[in-house]
Amino acid sequence: MNAARQATGKTMQKWLISLVIVTLGVSVLLPLIQLFSRAFYDKSGQFIGLNNFVTYFSTPALSQSVTNTLYISSMTTVIAVTLAFLFAYALTRSGIRGKGAFRAIALLPLFAPTMMHGIALTYLFGNQGVVTTGVFGMLPFQWSIDLYGPVGIILAEIVYVFPQAYLILAVSLAFADYQLYEAADTLGAGNWRKFFTVTVPSIKYGIVSACFVCFTLSFTDFGAPKVVGGQFSVLATDVYKQVIGQQNMTMGATVGLLLIIPALAAFIVDRIVERKQHSAITAKSKPYRIKENRFRDFFFTLICLCVSGFLLLMMAAVVIASFIKVWPYNLEFGWQHYDFSGVAGEGMTPLWNSILVALLAAAIGTVVTFIAAYAIEKSQVWKGLRQTGYFLSILPLALPGLVIGLAYIFFFNNPDNPLHGLYGSIWILILANVIHFFAVGFITATSALKKLDPEFEQAAESMGISQIKVFWRVTVPVCTSAIIEMAVYFFINSMVTISAVVFLYAADFKLASVSIVNMDDAGDVAPAAAMSVLIVVLNIIARACAEWMAAHLKKRTTWSNQEKGQVA
Amino acid sequence: MKKWHYPILASFLSLAVLAGCAQAPKSQSNAQAPASGGSNAAAPASGAITVYTALEDDQIKTYLESFKARYPDVKVNIVRDSTGIITAKLLAEKDNPQADVVWGTAATSLLVLEQQGVLEAYSPKGVERVSAEFKDSKEPASWVGIDAWETAVAVNTKELEKRNLPIPKTYEDLIKPEYKGLIVMPNPASSGTGLLTINGIMQLKGEQEGWVYLDKLHENMALYTHSGSKPAKMAASGEYPIGISFGYRSITEKKKGAPIEVVFPSEGSGWDVEANALMKKAEIKPEAKLFLDWAISDEAMKAYNQNFAIVSVKQESGTLPEGYAVDPIKQLIKLDLKKAAENRDNVLAEWEKRYATKSEPK
Fold this sequence. Notes:
The complex is a heterodimer of chains A (568) and B (362). By secondary structure, chain A is mostly helical. Chain A is built from 23 helices and two strands. Chain A has helices spanning 2-38, 51-58, 60-93, 99-107, 114-125, 134-137, 150-174, 178-186, 191-220, 223-228, 235-245, 249-277, 294-323, 349-378, 383-394, 401-412, 426-436, 438-451, 455-462, 467-478, 480-496, 512-521, 525-567; strands at 324-326, 330-333. In chain A, helix 21 (480-496) runs antiparallel to helix 23 (525-567). The longest helix of chain A is centred in the last third of the chain and has 43 residues, at 525-567. Chain A starts with a helix and ends with a helix. Residues 563-568 of chain A have low confidence and may be disordered. Chain B has 362 residues and is of the alpha/beta class. In chain B, strands 1, 2, 3, 4, 5, 6, 7, 8, 9, 10 and 11 form an eleven-stranded mixed beta sheet that branches. Chain B starts with a helix and ends in a 7-residue tail after the last helix. The interface between A and B is large, with 72 and 72 residues.
């Protein structure tokens, strides 16, 4: 009996693993192969080797974008990581007040599409911006920066990548072995020395990883350069220009290949770093203790106030501008920009479409990533295939949205593909979103599953309880908070993303983020601002619901644990 | 029992995603796909058609009202973008056309499409009312125009006052050094307005002098935009005080209360015709023809006339939309659309070579 159950358990595991690999193979690997092979063919399907790359690099207007993009990403990375480090240090290692509020503000940009950061900058630093005109001439001084071009893009990208860098660095800084600091004190090391010999080495992997994340995100972002790029072209806008503007798919594939390079490098480095980081903390480590230091706290409060003040200013500029009748000539308030019927938004429909896609992506994405993580983490069969599955599951980390979008055009728009029916439907948008954000959901699920003691399964197995039952009765309930986290992650990102979906939406199914780009193209900046505000509001609501559910759940489980404790 | 059905249930969970994906879109793609069978023919006015257009977003809704009143059961899927994008899309899809109808898109573009054999000749009902210069000379016609639109410059008076600059009235004024960095214009590769402005300049000055002029204009240019509307809107908000745009958009921005003066350059304006055409494809839907018939009907013309001074069917009332001069036709430069269409590729290639680095990302 038991042996038979075990055998079916094994069969089921094999089933699951094969399914995960086939699904990911079809939705990640095959489209990618299509895309890359396309870069070596011309428009009519003739193999031309590297000719596309030769054309690309010999067209000055195009090859210029490579240098431009490298410049943007390097500047963004240096500035954003520095700021994020100071911010994260302040929040983890100093005694400043208002940490909760600072943290919440730092994460605010995550709720917004990147176009919104660009729009915010136009209202602040554009030729009619609040800052540029000295609050419409009310202040005696004016401050004009040359916004449209590299300055604008870098500023917008910094805001975009800042929360990501902050999150990574805050995690690294939170783990520290205080014994090392005590030892340093005993040896009489000064503060700076401690910083360079203890702090920096312990978080070096965090810094490397933050740098790579910032670099790739700003390297592949499309929204911000679209809005404030002016005449300054970057690779992401080049892809769009080639594919949408000139319908030159092969050149689009060529640029797409270039886009993936840093992301792939980041991916590889991240894997290596991941392996090394595990050994940094041991069971004997002591948590960091924050000593009292007035001067330090004053300094960090100042930094946190500046950074979060700027982030709030950006947000406020867009919200206020979306209510102003005619910027900058009639500063009365009104709702008219929220009526999208006369602009490229075509009414509220794109917003509803976005919500539908985001909800479905959240539901499907959560289920699929969780099952994939479960199959790979909890199975005992087919070690090699499980590793392949693991690799395929985290591979999307290395794929910029634009690359996924392009690959899907090539793969699904081919009439010979049995999945051709997906093309132009809502499902391809959902699939693109699920794959685009697959890796993070997968990693969240995996780490939650790792925490679950394998003894549960072993006990269940010896008692003859089927794996399915254990899955529903034990695994899922224990992982609920991770599951909520995954769902809200899928939802928020599907709401703000533009890069993959801009190539895939159908004529009668426009998304909110796409309509923001269209409205900005047509010069309707205020309605574009209004639509961004709506997206942010919805995302904040989604996040709040998730927090509420998680808190509720925690209360319930701790309560029942206590009760059990009493009984025992 | 239990033993075998659990694993299947579990795998079904993830299979459901794929299965759901494969099935659900069928109903949708039926509505769009051209080869969805001939059943539509039986019930003429109840299908769905895909219409590609470069008309303005704020116009489309009002225009379509009378179509929807006449054919409430026909679903019209609108794909809207700037002229250059729509043209590129139609050319790229020429082997597998997605659109059924092209509506309100530059005649110079439709002439290129006609040359490529993408269009199906069809003379809509009432085509005889359309003035000869607004439609294809052949019978049946490959394209039929609905209105003409022309270069206009939106000038922000407040911002120029601040700088103590006079309002530019001519093309020659625009290249004066005092306007450096204050002017925006649409990119001709993406915008029909951009292209017709350049065509007008080429016509006025001849090709060689034309490029010399554009070189100078480029010196003054702050940036080139994606759409023809954006320069007028940027001028309206004072972001850049001078926007080379088109009549309708400049006038609407002024009507909305922006401190704008609409300048039609005294040398004359470049222009183009917004025209309709039927796409050539295996199965041409009857609704597509109904749409084209409606698109030049009196009701539709009246609606166009609310926005455009020049429409292709002479209007009885003779009232001009607000903001236009007495005889808008006089403002138009003498221009051969056919020649402009033939030169389209060359002009765009030359423009790209000379000025592309200042173009806003499209």
